[in-house]
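Curious: explain these tokens?
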Amino acid sequence: MSSFKKSSVFFFILATVLLLVVGFAALISASSVTGARVYGDPFYYIKQQYLIGLSVALVVVFIFYKIPYQFWRKTSAFWLGMSLLLVLLAFIPQFELAGETAHRWFKLGPLSLQPSEFLRFFYIIFLAAWLAKTSSIDLKSFTHGVIPFLIVLGLISFILIKQPSTSIVFLLGTTAIAMYSIAGMRFKHLLLIGTICLIGISALLLIGKGYRLERIMVTFFPDKADSSKLQQKEESLEGIGSGKILGVGYFNSVKKFQYLPLGFSDYIFAIYAEETGFIGSLALIGFYLFFVFSGLSIAYNNSDTFARYAVFGLIFTVGLQAFTTIAVNIGLLPVTGLPLPFVSYGKSNLLVMAMTVGFVLNTAKRKTN
């Protein structure tokens, strides 16, 4: 392993650790009020996330680090099929999470998880394997490249929209197009796919569930939106703004007192920014950039095409998720329901982050170009 690649791996691990440390500190504060009110224990969510979730995640990192990444390439279709099956099982009442109107959760006894998180991971692995084995001529072909790509992505997107899980469709679709683009998609095909996506989004807004259009109105046309729907956005912006340069101080957030009901998950960045201010927010964004650039460096320096595409896709989707969630918190994008990677509460997302880290580190064992 070259010194440059060693430094990329070191910085990747360092960025991961820094994000976990920030996540631990942020979650302790952001979840304390809800934990005390709902469960009588201010550390309830911390125990769930780090005593249980992180313990399992460390085992997952070890497994994905030890198993040769070629195994996932050879079995990618199987794992994609299994994750799709879990997504479909979530539509069956016996496997639904009690009290949930959407079909995003799969529950079997004490085990509950979000299958769409794992579907996203294994679709990226599947797509990387397909891109690596398909000739450059076929990738540039509409018949042999674009159509198979759209069929698989369209089928998965249709199932996820029925959950509904529009945010995962956004992450999956954007990542898939980015991966295909670096593999050699023709520009005219990129424009065609982009047009199809715009038509699909428009159709969702016009004939789909009303909450999607409502979120668009709240974000981009607040003066025309229902004033009762503006509270979450306004509370988030007010909390971030009150943090100013250095923040109001650790554990001193006001917005976590039920002003932001999802302050330990979707809106944890707003609570964090309120307590740590502009400096703390800038540091967290820097850690994500650190993670993304070191991960992309590992991808670039891998001589195996599959590993390069897979690592690019996995790192791209983590970065996209992080900056999309931050953009939602500061009012630049509509509410998505996405957790902030490594920081928000959510064991399913934490496990997928562990799978990502383990897989990336496994590919780094290969000799550089």
